[in-house]
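G., the chain you wanted modeled:
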Amino acid sequence: MQWLSLGTAVLNQTPLDWDGNQDRILQAIAAARAAGVTVLCLPELCITGYGCEDAFLAANTRRQAWRVLHAVLPATHGMIVCVGLPLLYQNALYNTAALLVDGRIAGFAAKQHLAGDGIHYEPRWFKPWPAELQTRFSASDLEDYTQVSADAAENARTTGEPAGYPLGDLLFDIGGVRIGFEICEDAWVANRPGARHALRGADVILNPSASHFAFGKDEIRQRFVLEGSRAFGVSYLYANLLGNEAGRAIYDGGAMIASGGKMLAIGPQFSFADMRLTAAYADLDATRQSRAASGSYQPQLRLDDDDCVRAPFDWPRLAVPRPAVIPPLPWPNAVDKEEEFTHALTLGLFDYLRKSRSRGFVISLSGGADSSALACLVGLMARLGVRELGHAGFVQKLAYVPGIEQCATTADLTKKLLTCVYQATQNSGPVTLEAARRVAAAVGANFLLFDVDPVVRQYIALVEEGLGRTLTWQTDDIALQNIQARVRSPSVWLVANLQNALLLATSNRSEAAVGYATMDGDTSGGLSPLAGIDKHFLRHWLRWLESSGPVGAGPIPELRYVNQQAPTAELRPPEQAQTDEGDLMPYDLLDAIEKAAIRDKRNPLETFLCVEGPFAQYDRRQLAAWVERFFRLWCRNQWKRERYAPSFHLDDENLDPKTWCRFPILNGGFEAGLRELDSQ
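Predicted structure as tokens:
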């Protein structure tokens, strides 16, 4: 048997953080070396960061990436390591993975299929590399001529090849073991490059990826990794990004190693660490034998095999594999949507906090579902982070926060990082106040109680005097509701500013869809973590958190004070018994209409037909009226969605107009479709 010692590492990188990104790459290489790994795959564009946006087009970005590439080269002696960076060739930019072999650059594999849908915009910056095309680039193709010329000359001297580096759709023969690439999206398409590599005798395929988190997505990744290893008859290495890299997208990590259709190792998801290594041993003889025994395998024979990049390498001979000692996470990888949501949001909040250098979070805690969910998520962030990193490790990551080193317990950390403010008006009731107090105490937050009703009355009196009339609920309902929500914004912003903390907006996706939110009121904040999730699921998650909770953290029973209420904005007088669903429609129905109308792009009549069966308990005319209400509110409120604070991407039902769901602010309002619905 000839064993290959393989490793993948997930990295929590930050766009344009040259020193930090370099350090984390070196940490991964050092950890792999200590674990006896010979081949190490790192994530896509890990040198620059994946989310550089238009900064990819800056010449300095490419210069710095080239500098970091050469800074990590010496650490790869005796190893084979792939790192990702952008590369300019003939005035076009390509997304590439550099294969570093024993301290030298063997060549650059270029991405062939660019992600240009959903939250991805790669074709804005990069060009797709043509299949089966190989070339070489020289010093004149890069900006830093002096450094590149010296590197190219040294490469030519040591390998005897022409000056420059191989670039393109490459297969590498490294000491007799053939290595090919599929870069992220390359593996998601029907015409996978791995199929061509397999026909040319590939033994190993590396997949450096930046695949954002979405509910249930990891199962799809596992399928194409397993199937790639089986169908291609190779060992397959998959390395993903980790954490909240650039603000909106969360990367769950989850590295994988498979061989011959069997999963050898799966790395942890949602880690709070900077880097996590996954390692395994693969039997090279076994994958080669499986292809030799396959009657359908017909290798692509070429008399001239010059397009295969060759580099010498002394492979270690491992008679008996030694298992790598890699500490696991203190919880299993998330498989349920509730667990996925918990770990994605807590990791997203933690990285946003520390990468923005904020000193904590402030929440306007109403005692309702949305704000209570945010308070619980911040509390869970501290619990899960300390459980994985240890108290000292968690504190070290937030060492810039003054006084955090004095926090002796997880409860102290939460109190340091979270302030909740209940802001009462004359329409606020004892039930929501009690719920807010209980939740804040349960998660260990600071709790402040403000009476903002005098300010509300002052604004109303000011406007009444100016207009020369009295404002009443019969004539001025919406305005009188909105002023209460808006009055709460300046005071909670003041608290956040005084603490140099991040104010979290509390609106959810269901409210964003129909504009059921007050601009400069409950939408106030620097980050809107819940704007990517629907209210129906959020209420389900709160009930789950009350009774079960995530592995490693447990339940929060005090949420019963929230869950026993009907969601309400509490902006009308108590005798009107205001509820959110009374103002809008049942939340589960709103979610179903949103999916049909916005995600699936159906017209009003088609949307009605989609929900008529599942919601047959409602009168058909009432159901049609709710469908009409949704479409009218959707069309009127695009301007609100444009103004929401950045939110986290969680699934393909996102409404964020900056990354996913674009819609014109001014539009015809589906009038023709609504007439068709009415006629039926």
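The mean pLDDT is 93.

Shout if anything looks off.
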